[in-house]
Design a protein that fits this description.
Low-confidence stretches: 329-347
Distance between the termini: 40 Å
Number of helices: 13
Amino acid sequence: MHESVVIFDFGSQYTQLIARRVREMNVYCEIKPWNAIPILPENCKGVILSGSPYSVRDTKAPLPDLSAFHGKIPVLGICYGAQWISQCYGGQVAASNTREYGRAQLHKVMDSPLLQNMDFPTQVWMSHGDSITELPKGAHRICATDDVSNAGFSFEEQATYGVQFHPEVYHSLQGMQLLKNFVLTICQCSGDWTPGAFIEEQIRNIRDKVGSSKVIMGLSGGVDSSVAAVLLHKAIGSQLHCIFVDNGLLRQGEFEEVLTSYEGMGLSVNGVRASQLFYDALAGKNDPEDKRKAIGKTFIEVFEQAGAAIEGAEWLGQGTIYPDVIESISVDGGPSQTIKSHHNVGGLPEHMKYQVIEPLRLLFKDEVRLLGRELGMDDALLKRHPFPGPGLGIRILGEVTEKKVRLLQQADAIFINALKQHGLYNSVWQAGVILLPVQSVGVMGDERTYENVVALRAVGSTDGMTADWSHLPYEFLSEVSNKIINGVRGINRVTYDISSKPPATIEWE
């Protein structure tokens, strides 16, 4: 078993970012709900306590007993985690005079293993409404900001540490160094969890789970499902039967292109045209969650029908990745809040014929790409932009109709092709066009028009959990706008979305 760090989730939406930072060190980590304390795996080298939307002064907040590991293995509390450590051992936590969110300058107060190889002052990211006003007996203040006296503390003899800020977010400029200090130096993890090791372990897990049964796998042409399929195929070979469904919500020409792209990869792929079934399921539905669940339900029904011809098929393979899980459901039953349901997480019927196998469920997008390279997959496929499982169904705000899909497909093709032609595609993490539920007045050929509005969306990201809008050249945006308005009958206005995540999401629904 690999050395690991366990992250106890107190409900923070940043918890998965902590996990991602630890993974970047080639150290395996698991996220567990706070109420799983004190259960630790045998190979656990350290514990991290996450932030939380709660206050430690609230009786309904997560208030676990930390004695199972405090003083026994290294512990790092982040924000709420630090406050709970402090309060647990006699310190005082009170409401701040002003809620502190955003950037702050951190100053070192005293030397500590947690702060080694860091330059001060340094920018950190704060997000809290409480402050530690008095440290517990035996704890020492190690860093502070202008507004937060106890921004970091340590129980050096017990190797227990707490920081009020969030080292896991990019805005904490030396946050990764702090986490390395904890994971690699204080916990003494060797960093032996690599893509190659993950592949070997997953192959064993898949074979143990599946046995001699067959797996049907949903392919979309995207990175996640492709890597999952190749990994499953490496593990069970001809027991894997892939199905690619034309749900009527794909990009223009994508059904044929995807089938062609899998030729020569050794995968057995059956293409199923089922557009009308999805259009019927979506008829009259305007709510994003209703649409996602309708697409997910129809997806499974199509699979059950297609899989009925495959004797011995007991498993459904899916390319679910970690951000899908985090945004759809709380981790392992923990308290994180749901952002939205993903069709391959929240839209599955409770009673379905197949058991689900998700070999990438605990990986972030960049980790999936690294895994694909380790598996020898074509780099062109691995660099494809993420495309949501529900496809254009969640890029059409409001009710989805075949006519709207055709309209959006044309506009989307113009945008994506232009990105490729101008050498911008690989500098953008994800891009697409959104069809808005509004119409606007325009003038075309001296005639008044009343037609649809679309929004272009392009973002930069590393993991999909946070994203900044891409600063595409004005000349490029002007060219795309002209091409869409002149080339797509029914659209007379193009806008550009300059929202970042958070507070916005990458997709509009």
